[in-house]
Structure formats: C-alpha cells, structure tokens
Give the backbone structure.
Amino acid sequence: MSPRAQRLAFAALALVLAAAMAVLYRRYVWNSPDATLAWTRGATTYVLRSPRLLGLLLVAPFFLLILPRSLADLPWQQQLLSLGLRLAFVTALALALSRVARTERAEHVYTVFLVDVSDSVSSESIADAARSLRQFLGARKKDDRVRVITFARRPRLVEMDEAATEPPTLARHDTDAATHFGAGTNLQAALQLAYGLFPPGYLRHAVLFSDGVETDGDLLAEANRAEKLGVKLFTVPYRGAVPGEVAIQRLRLPDRVKVGEPFEIHADVYASRAGQAKALLYQGEALNGLDGARTVALQPGVNDVLFKSVVRVGGEVTYRLELDPLGEDKFQENNRVAETIDVPGRPSVLYVEGEPNRGSPLASGLDRQGFDVDVRAPSSFPGSLRELERYDFLIVSDVTAEQISLSSQELIESYLRDLGGGFLFAGGPNGYGPGGWYHTTVERILPVRMDAERRKDMPSVAMSLAIDRSGSMTGLPMEMAKQAARATVDALSADDLIEVIAFDSTPTRYVKMQPARNRSRIENDIARIQAGGGTEIFPALDAAYQDLSVVQARKKHVILLTDGRASSSGIRDLVQAMAAESITVTTVGLGAEVDDQLLSLIKDFGGGRYHKVPDPGSLPKIFTREAEMIAKSSVTLDYFPMKQVAPADFLRGIDVATAPLLSGYTATKMKAWPAQEILVNADHDDPLLARWRVGLGYALAWTSDVKARWAGDLARWSGWPQFWGQLVHEHMRQKRRSELPMKTDVFGGTAHAVVDAFDADDRFDNNLESKLTVQGPLPGGSSSTVLLKQTAPGRYEASFPLDRYGSFILRAEHRRRTEDDRVVPVAVSYGHVSNPYPPEYASFEPNLGLLGRAAETTGGSRDPEPSAAFDPAGESVTFHQDLWPRFVGASIVLLVLDLLVRRIRFFDRKFLPKTRTV
Amino acid sequence: MHFYGLPASTLLTIAAIGAAAIVSLYVLKLRRRPVPVPFVRIWQRILREKEATSLFSQLKRILSLLVQLALLALLVLALGDPRGFASNKSRNVVVLIDGSASMKAVDVASALNPSYARIDAAKDEVKKLVRGLGGSDRMLIAQMDAAVTPLSTLTGEVADLDQAVALVRATDSRADFPRALRFASDVLLGLSSPEIVIVSDGNLGEPRDAAGAVHLGQVAISFVPIGKGGRNVAITEFSVRRYPLDRDRYEVMLELYNASKQAEEIELDLLGDGNLVDVTKLKLNPGERLPRFYPNLSGARRTLEATIKPANGGRDDLPADDHAYALLPDQRRIRVLCVTAGNTYLEASLLLTTYLDVTYVAPSEYPVKGQTFDVTIFDDVTPPVADGSGSVLYLDPRGESSPVKVDAATLVNVGFDTLDKKSPFLRWTAIDDVYVGRAHRLVPEPGDKVVGASEKGALLVTGRRAGRRFLALGFNPRDSDFVLRIAWPLFVLNVMTEFVAEDPSYLSSFRTGEVWHVAVPTLSDEVWLSAPGASSPKRVPVQDGRAVYLGLDAGFYTLEAGPRGAAVKAEFAANLADAEESAIEPVAVLTVDGKTTGSVEGFHVGVRSEWWIALLLLAVAITTVEWATYHRRITV
C-alpha cells in the first residue's frame, strides 16, 4: 500500500472511529436520563458522577489521525505503544474528570446535639445539659463528628470544632423584648436545621435536650420526616428543678350559669414551690363582687383555687384573673388569664339616669315586663364596647353631654351601628339642647335635631342672678362676679329678661327684671355693686323667686353665686316651691369655704347644676355657659296630651289617647326621612317619640322625660310598663334569633372556627354568606373580620392568626342571598377563644410522652447512654468514594512511560533497512 | 491557596521523582537511525545550515522538556486539589426550591418533552447557579413545601449540590414560605455575605404567619422566576357528609375554580366506589368559583372521586388539582347491648334505625362474656361496668356503681328548666316541657357537663369515667311523658351517634400540607400508614389516640393500627383543595420583608473552586497539542 493510501486509510479509520464514538457518547451519555452512570462489579458499584466529561475521549481519533504523518524516528511498534500509552493517559484523565467513584459503606456517626435554651428551661437544666454533653463527647469514637445547635423559638448553630472534646458554651438566645426569641420553643425548626449539617458518608444522629414543651411546629410530624431522611433521634428530657414559678393554667367556668345564682369558678394555678399569691378576679371591668381579691396559699403542683361569683345580667361575661405572687416568680406573662362565659338570661337593659334615685318608675316598669334592668349613674357608663354588648337595649335619660364622654358617645354609636343594639335617648332638664347635646355624636345618631326655633309669643328666658356681695368677695372675686354678670347679659337675646340681685345679709336688686336689650344701662347698674356685709342666701333666693314667679317666660332660671356659708333654714322648701313653678336654680360656689352640702341640695331640688369654682377668673365662663344653655333651651313646661301620628307595632294594644298628660318636653325638629315620627305633642305637633335605624340597630328619641318630673302622671298610668316593655322589645338587639353552634380551638397561635349549619329538616344548609368578627383581646381590643368559607355540605370554617394574647370573642353573621339578589340575615353564631400568654409559660414539667414517642418513631430512644449517640447499631451508610486522584496518579505514571517509550529505542535496535525508504 | 487533596510534602515528592525521571530521559542521547544519503548537494546544504540546525535542535529539546515538566506539574497540582481561601467576600447562599403543587405545572413543557414541569425547570436553573458559584462560595439547597427540607449541607462541593438538586420533587401541598425563609436565615446567621435565592413560580403568598412577618435583616434575597402561563381549572373543595338522621344518604360538595384568564369548558366526572355516578359539562368564566352540591346521593359505600378535564380534550397546565378524593364515613353497624328487664319504649326506639345491632340481656346476665359492644344501655339497673361495654347510657342510675352521685331524695313533678340546646345529645329534640313524675337529682363531678336540669338539680349529665363516656338520665323515662314524644327516639339515636363518634362533624378528607391528626381505630400505639404510591407502610407516632402525620400527597391513605397481621384498618383521603395554589399564573416579582427581590447576580459559569478540573482539562489540551507537535518534529 502506498504511503498516501496508508494515510487515507488511517484518516478513514479515524473518522469512522470518531463518528462511532460520537454516536455512542450522544446516545449513552449526553442523552442519558440519569445524571450519573453507574455499573456494578462484584459487590462494588462504580459511578461516574459527571459522565459528560467522558466526551474528552473524543480526541482519541485525532491521535490516530496524526500517526501516519508522523516524522518521529521510532519503529512502528514503539509508535503504536506510544499511541496506546497516550490514549491511556487521556482516558485516565477523562475518567478522573468524570468523577469516577465507587460506593463504600461507613459506620462513622455524625451527631448533632440540639439543646433547648428557651425561657421555660431553668439555668440549672441548661447546666445539666452541658454536663451531659461532655459525657456524650467523651463517648465519641475517633471518626465521629459532632455539631451543637441551641434553640428556643429559633435554632442557632453554635461555633465549635467538629472534633472538639469539650462542649461549647450554651447561651440563652437574646431576651430583647422586641424579638424575645426565648419566648417559644420550636423543636421542629431545630431538627430541620440539623438536617442541613449532616455531610455524606456519615450515619445521622440527633440528640435532643429539651423539656418537650413546644409552642410552634410539631415534633411528632417532624419525627416522621426525620425517619425518612435517615436521622435517628435520641431525646434527653430535662429533669432539673424548675425555677420558682406561678402560672395560671386555666380558668374553669361552669357550663351553665344562671342570672342571680351564685356559682364557683375554679382556677388551675401551677406553682413550682409552696408560696402565696394575691389574686384579683375581675368580672368584666370591675372586681368580682362576691370574691374579688384575696391571698391564696399555693402548694407545689397544680392548685385548684376556688372563687364564688354571681352574674346579675345575662349575656357574655368575661372573667379575668390576675395573680401577684408573693415569692419567686420567673415569668409574669402567665399571671393573667381571661375567660368568657355566655350567661343566658332575660333581655337586659342598661338605664343610665342623670338622677339614678329617680329612675325607679321606668326600671320597675321594665322589670315587670321581663327585663333585667341595670340602673347606673352617668359616671358608671361602660368603658368598652365589650361591656356595653352585654345589654340588649340602652337608655340614656336626663344626662348632660358633659357627663357622657366623647368616647362613650362613640361607643353608643358602635353599639347601634355594629352590634345592632337599641338606644333610647330620653329628655329632661339636662337632655337634648339644655344638656349641651347640640352638635354631638348622640345628636347625629338621633332622628331629631336639637336646634329647634324658639317661640315668638313670649320671652324665652327669664334669668335672675343672685350674687354674693359679702366682705369676703372684696377685690378680684367681686370684679370677676360683675364681669360674669355682664357676660351673662351678652349671652342672652334682646327679649330675654334679666335681673341682678346682690346680697349680703339682705338682697338688693341692682338690676330690676328687664329685657336684656338694655345692655348699657344694665351694665352700668352692675358696676355699682360694692362688696361688704355678711351672707344670707334665703332672702336673695326668695327675692328672685318672687320676681320670676310674676313674669311670663318659657324658661325661668336662677344663678346663685356665693363664697361663704349661710343658714340653710327654709331654703329647701323655697327651692321646692320654685321647682314646682318650673324655676330652676344653678349654684356656683367660689373658693374652698363654700357649703357644698347646701349648694348641692339647692341644685338637686332646683334642677340645675352646681359648679364649684376655686378660681374667680373662671366665673364669666361658667355664667356664660349657663346662660347659653338656658337661652338655647327649648324646654316647654306645659301639660299636653300625646298623639300617635304613625303606626308602630309596639303600640299594638296600647291606647295612647287615654294616657295621662305629660308636663314638659324639649322641642326638637324631625330629621329628614327615614326618621319616623310616632308620637307628638298634640298641642304643638312637636315630636315626642321618633325613631330610625342606625346601622344594625335602632335609635329612638323621647323628648319628654321618663321619671316623675314631666312624666309623673304617665308613670302612674296602667299602660306605662306595657308601653316601655313593648317599645324595648321591638327595638332591642335581636341576638337571640336563629343561632348556629360554633366550635373553636387554638393551635400553634392560629384560631380555627367551625360552624355547622342544618336547616329545619336536618339537611345541610348550604350557600350561606358568612362573616366572622373577631374582637379582642378583651377588654376592649380591636375588631377584625374574616370570611367563613364553606368547606363541606353545611360546614363553614375560618382560620386566623392570634398575634396577641388574651380572650377574644367571635361573632359570625350568616346571611343568604335571595333570588332577587337581596342579602338577608339567617342566623348568628357566637364563640370565644383564649390565647392567654405564650404557651412557653404554660408548662414547666417535661413532656416525657412526646419526647419518647418522637425518639421511638425515628428508631432512637429516650434517655440514651452516651455511647448510643455514636453507636452505629449495626447500621452503615453508603457513600461515594472519589477515585479521581487515583486516575490522576495513574496518568503521571503513564506520562513517564510514554516519555520512556519515545526516548529509548526498544525495537529495531540494529536499524535493519526498511523495505522502502524516502 | 489550600490543598484539600494530598499534602504538599507528598506532592513535592511526587513532583521531584517525576521531574527527575523526565529530565533523565531527556539527558539520554537518542540513537538515530543511520540514513545513507547519496546526493552531495544535500550534504552541502546540511553542512551549510549545521550551526543553525544545532541551535534549533537544542531549543526543541528544551521546549519539549518544558512541556513534559508542565504536564507533570499540572497533574501533581491537580492531585493536591488546590482551592482558594474562604474570605470575607465568600458568599453563603441558601437556595430555596419551591416544591409546592403549582410547580407540577407543565406550562414550560415543549413538544419534545411534554412532561417537562416547572419543577424540572427550577432544577435546571439551580444547576446553573451551582455551576456559577465563586471559588470560595458555599451553597445549601433546600426544598420548601409544607415543610422545609435541606437536601445538602452548606458546601462548595458541586457533586453534592448536584445530588441535592436531583432529590427535589414537587408535592401536592402549598409552600410554607415564612417557615422556609426563617430556616434560611437561621442557616445564614453570622455568616459572611448571606444570600437567599428563591426558585419558584412566585405563588407563595405573604411571608407572614402566626409568628408574625418574616424579617431577614441584612440577608440579601433574590428570585429566579419559573413558569410561563396559567391556564388551569381546579377542584378546590371536595367533601361528602352523611345526613345525620338518614345515614344511608349523603351529600357531596364540590367547588370548581377557573384560575385562567379565559373562560373554560370542562367535563366533570363524579365516581362512587370507582363507578361513574355523574357526568356534567360546565363552563366557567375567568376567575369564577363554582360550588356544586349533589344532595340525596346513595349507592357508593366508601370512596368518592371527582375528576375534571377540558371538554374539548387535552389537559390544563396543572393536572395535580384535576382529581379529588373523599371517603364516606364507615357505616358499620353499631353494637348495642341493652341491659333491661324489659322496656317497650326503649326497644321501639332502637328498632327505628337499621344500623344498630342490638343485643338484649336481663340484668342478671350482664356482663356478656366474649363480646364487645360500642354502647351499653343500663335500663333501671346500675351494675359495675365490665370491659368491652363501650360507652354507657344510664337510665335512672343508683347505687355505688353510678358514675355520678344520686340524691336519695325523690324529686316530684319536675321538668327540664334549663337545657344545653347545643349538646349533640339534644339535637332536633324539644324536651323543655317534658313532665317527669319522679326523678333523682344527679350531682356531677368536676369536668362533667350538665345537659339538662330542673330548678331542683341536674337531671341529665354527661362525662367520662376511666376513659369511657357516659350519659346519665336522672329518672326512668317511663316515669315521664318523655317516652311518648317524638323526641325520645331522637334522643336515643343521638346518644348512639354521639357515642360512636359518627357525628356530622366527620371529616371526609384531609388537606395536604397540614399536620393530620387521624383518629386511630383501636387503642394501639402501633400504627402504620400507607401513603398513595408508597411501596410499603410507614410507622407513624400516635398522640392522644390520633396518628400524627404531615401529609404532602393527595389520594387515599390506609391506616393500620395494632400488631401486623392483626391490625385494624381505616382509610382516609387527602386533597390539595387550595385555590391559591391552583392560581398558577407565575409572579415576576416577590416582596419579602418590605424589599422587592432582585434577580440573581454574581453566578457566572466558569472556573470555580475545584481547580483540579481546570488543571486536568489543561493537561488534556496540552497533551493533544504536544502529540501533534511531537510527530511533526516541532518538539522532540
């Protein structure tokens, strides 16, 4: 064969070889579905972990291709030998790069120690864990490795040498209040972090030091996964002495409580040591009446602490127990627990009366109609919506706007709008305009306006100012009193009447009764008043009475200013006589020496107000306010009959026309539709009773009063109880409509509510639109809404995180969309959940059951011997041993051999002539 | 630089020996073949160029020697497995690969690879990241589904990371994003240049849970979005409940959700015990949720399945939520033992239902040996309760064996003044005006519940004694008009239903991705669970009579309780049933801890920490070139 033919043949051979290798490589390596290539030889499995780099072998044909063109002075045998060595060299490198490895079995153990350093673990227990850890490390074999993780709410890897023989420092996690990583235990997260530490080629062991109290995650569920991932778990429960601790575990209330019937409340109080604690039990916002505060003796373990209580008004009642341990107590978070109970009872009415001692006519009338009535003074108005929610109907009667704070007025609006409560605002001398309710939240929610125009046929106001001019008033007090008198004149309308009486032991009319339009003359007369003399109130009041009784005015009012004490003889009768003629009296006491008792008495009988003023500088302001209040008042004191002008269900069976006359009311104006006027003053057609809807509830305005002042005759009427009973019944909160049971639970900081809905014939009630309102933590707390989703026939569920601690009430509204696309309420559900404090502070005894079961699930054990943590127990782990260094070593040998073959002539050493030479 | 392979001393020894051998071989003078050349002109030319040739020859020998020494050096260095030192700039990266159900979507598939799913695309992206790690960077790969599972250590070993990527698989659950982020930040705590890479379709929700919002501090976070489309119709609810009073019939609820941006027509098949029960064609508007109810069904005894498919054939992008499973509660007959001297009213009420298996014995014949019962009724007798009696209904209990203390005084002419109408024992009954001629006041113990009471004391009390439930009625029903009312058989039926826990709150299927607490049918703690598709059952722990398991896959499960071979079996179903997970439209940007995640940066495929690979590749290249130059006499 010619050299050219030889070269062509070699080239063809190289190309065929290259093509064949490429096809094989593409088919079996490049397109292989497996990331690795493996084969077994005997008992050993070999694997190429990066098989694609075998493609380097595709250079082999190149070596062959070069050979026929070689100029090397070597016999052909040596050239072939060199080719073989070079191919072997490249093959060795290709295999090395393909990461050839073989499976090996090992019994080395990699153990991760998980140490609980959460708040529920005492420092002694952590020290015990450190001692145990030292024993474990001592039992380790040479090739075993260890790591340590400490954990509370979150796990943390502790810096240490894997081969260390001494345990690292076991520190608690930060106790910063903002993050407070110690206030929780997440065993699951600790185990998951451990998974990421086990290197290949080691048996995986984990040793858990903990009390087994988990507040987040689920160790048992994680144990399943640990077993699947080949992690064997051993558990070492903490058994050290627990710190001094007192914790309320539970507040147990009876299933059923009846209104007015005493019952027992059990508190499960855990104490780690014997000691004492002060206990305060609250019912709602007030101390529990029967048994509110006492010191309890606690024995180690769980103590059953008993309280007695009674509920006076039905509804949902929240009990809150607070403990103040007298000895050592590590955590304060667990000293407070609240629970709520639903007390069935009669419909309840909260009756806030400006004069509680005069509220009996209405209270007894409602009581006879089957209502629980709670009569309170304005100062005891509920401070929270939660407290207000216990009542089905709210009556505010004859109270000034000053006595009901702005926040309380907003509570009333929420009570109506959101809770569907009923609200009656009743008048009186302090109601409506005279009470300063104009432009308030209450006026906004009522169906009447309070800016009624005054009548033109007579002066609206006749006012008498009785000013003490005794010697003690000399100086600034007298000047300020005169300025107050001038300011009063300015506050009155031109037609209003005014007189000024200055008194010492006798009264002097400095300004005789005259219209206020004579301002300059009146002010000049006021300027003439001089201080001096003693103090006698009776003659001054009597003079005012005589003057006012003879004038025509819709409102007659006396302001009495004094800074000293005087005889009270006859004053009470005088003021009663004035009240009988609808003359009201307000008293102003200046300085500390005034007779509070006398001035309060005058106020009480006079139907006015009592202002105690330490600083004479504020006198003008008080007088002005009084004048405005009286001047703007539209109280009408006159006997008049009621007249029904619109149908109302609650008046069914009541003949209003036969009702006795009322003797007074406050003139108001109806607001626009949908405000509905029901009863009017038959003489003037002013609204007497009006109503409208506010949100879910009803607001009603009663412009007369509900007590013996203006409604004295009516209160003696036989229809009085029925009238109010039916009125309240129709407009009270309809919480007792169809109720669906709600089941609730809290797990892992998430609350879960389930409502099962069945219709009348036991079928599932589907397609309800259900909304769940969560309010808390109680008392007060904010309100949020979540949707209840239908998850099965007749079943509605919602889950929501409880990111705060305390007691929460749940209220679900179930509605249905009708065919005409209206949404109508169908039913309600009530429930409550309690998330008193982080579960970390709930238990201090080790959960041996949990720790045992978790270990057992993974094949480990509880309380292992130290050697067990490193005992392969007959197990071994398969791992890949890399062989690439061996192939690199072989390639070095091949490199030298190749060089040897090139540099030393082994064949044709005698240089026999070639058959054909160039 | 640091040697992770052979120690430097060994490497130097190998290098010295190898170099000595190579140099020795180059010192040897080659014997050249004598070639007779007949032409004088050639000799003349050779002599003319002798000086130059000699110099060139020497240079070629030195170059050749250097090449060989260089090859040796490369190989020896590779043996040492050299790597750069970790520095403060070394990155520590945790890659969270989304293993939730939406990652099973095949919107990224091609005609060549129709089964290529998002999870495969995610794995390919992570492989690129692994290749792009810097020299001293370390990476941990973790899968996030309902739990978070690290699949590697924090390592720079490419092989280990590749192996971890291969282990990733998509589940039938949603991803617990907050938990995964917290895990990642725990791993990265205190490490230099910490970084989290999220490889996901972005359907992860707000990273907030009961523990609050996730805060990552200084940890950098980046996002590799996966997925293209979002055409999907899903079954988002599927459940079945038997009617409480007519237990032969049941009602099925099913909710369909069209997560696509266009209307979809689908065919819905309902199967009972594997047989087709109903076929419906439906059209769903974009984003529409359509609940459907199948009332008054009967026929199927155990399993129910629902499947959907596009009405025009083919499939949507996420087949995982096109199939749902539910199990009907077991309709086993309740074994009732009635210990009575004869009570027509009681016998009549027990005849009204077909699923009771009632045994009557005289008081003297109690206990019945060799038999166990679910419920025992003691009618006007109160013997000590024997094992195997199940829960107990006492009618007018007395004496020492009564579960509650009974007042000796007889109450005359009483009724139920208060009733716990929410109690399941009183469901659908109206007994407010029942007249009781003679009764005895029951005194409940702490923990007992008073279901009904007169003004003079409790008359109906329930509780638990020695783990056994009981209900005690403080009067003989025959001493009242209770037995004459329709409420009486309802009451007895409620007692049976409540005692055997087949109440209407039965759960027909669990939701994947949650920790299930499955009621164990026996008292055994040895419980084995067979998951769908699993080759063998796994033992699972039991807590408070319930097996605890984090379920990740939809389908039917079998639970066996008790020793193998004699185990009692129970089944349950699990479904994805998660509309948010079925909304598979990929999200382009994630927001975590108030920060918008950026795209990954700094991962460049190239020479990374494993320098030996580059050294060997260079050696192969040099040897290939050297082979050509040697044979062409450029080197010798």
User: Anything to note?
Assistant: Chain A has a mean pLDDT of 86. Residues 500 and 511 of chain A are 5 Å apart (CA to CA). Chain A is about 25% helix and 30% strand.
